Amino acid sequence: MSCGALKFGSFTLKSGRISPYFFNAGLLSTGPILAVLSEAFAATIVAAQQPSSLNDKTSTPIPPFDVLFGPAYKGIPFAATTSLVLHTHYRDSPNIISTTPETGIGFAYNRKELKSHGEGGSLVGCSVSNKKVVILDDVMTAGTAVREAIDIVSREGGDVVGVIQLLDREEVGKDGASSTVHEVEEIIGKGRVKSILRMRDLIAWLESKGMKKELQDMEEYRSKYGLKD
């Protein structure tokens, strides 16, 4: 809210839905905000590497991995700053598990256009070939961008083992029942898509601030499009 990345009002999404809020991660672009954001991403990754429930045998934690992948363009600073925080804050922690502890977690991102000169290729940063990769995303609605990121990493020989999103809208998909998160987890494994914030967190925040009009609009939207589970 402080930098305008989160706005309340009336916004038409790519899906055609009229949303009472809009999130633009591109505006999270100052040192103090990126510091908080990267710490949140890192903490969420570490938590996601722990078993979620002893009774849930179908949900698997994110395994040891090598590279953070930030889809161009908004995901690039997420991956760069989070790899730095994982090194400075968690390198001596037994909870952060890297397959290459001697080098730490690297980061990579894709080019929007293929480069034909110099080193060429479609990726910049660490190689993802034969590496386990975690994707950092801003928000999933239809999930088009994260599926493209999974395809990019897979084409380069990488194995996507987790996705961490900044905001989970907790909405049903086009079928009115399943969610984008569940659909992506069918590709990479149940329990391997995590989020820093969820729609329920925004609603709780609005309630704490006494923003009654925005709260009512959010409740109505969740009633119409929110996950029922």
Quickly list its features.
229 residues, alpha/beta, 6-stranded mixed beta sheet, 6 helices
Describe this structure in words.
Helix 1 (31-48) crosses helix 2 (75-90) and helix 5 (199-209) runs antiparallel to helix 6. The protein is 35% helix and 25% strand. It has a 6-stranded mixed sheet, sandwiched between helices. The chain contains 6 helices and 8 strands. The model has no long low-confidence stretch (mean pLDDT 88). The chain has 229 residues and is of the alpha/beta class. Strand 4 (106-115) and strand 5 (121-125) form a beta hairpin.
Topology, please?
Blueprint: E1 6-12, E2 18-23, H1 31-48, E3 67-70, H2 75-90, E4 106-115, E5 121-125, E6 132-140, H3 144-155, E7 159-168, H4 180-188, E8 193-198, H5 199-209, H6 212-225
Parallel strand pairs: 3-4, 3-6, 6-7, 7-8
Antiparallel strand pairs: 1-2, 4-5
Helix pairs in contact: 1-2, 5-6
**Unreliably modeled segments:** none
> Helix count?
6
Q: What portion of the residues fall into strands of 2 or more residues?
A: 15-25%
The sequence of SSEs as H and E is: EEHEHEEEHEHEHH
Pfam family, one: Pribosyltran
Protein name: orotate phosphoribosyltransferase
Enzyme class: transferase
Pathway: Pyrimidine metabolism; UMP biosynthesis via de novo pathway; UMP from orotate: step 1/2
